[in-house]
Amino acid sequence: QVQLVESGGGLVQPGGSLRLICAASGSTFGISGMGWYRQAPGKEREFVASISSGGMTIYADSVKGRFTLSNNNAKNTVYLQMNSLKPQDTAVYYCKTYSLTAEYRVWGPGTQVTVSS
Question: Which residues sit opposite 6 in a β-bridge?
Answer without folding.
Answer: 22
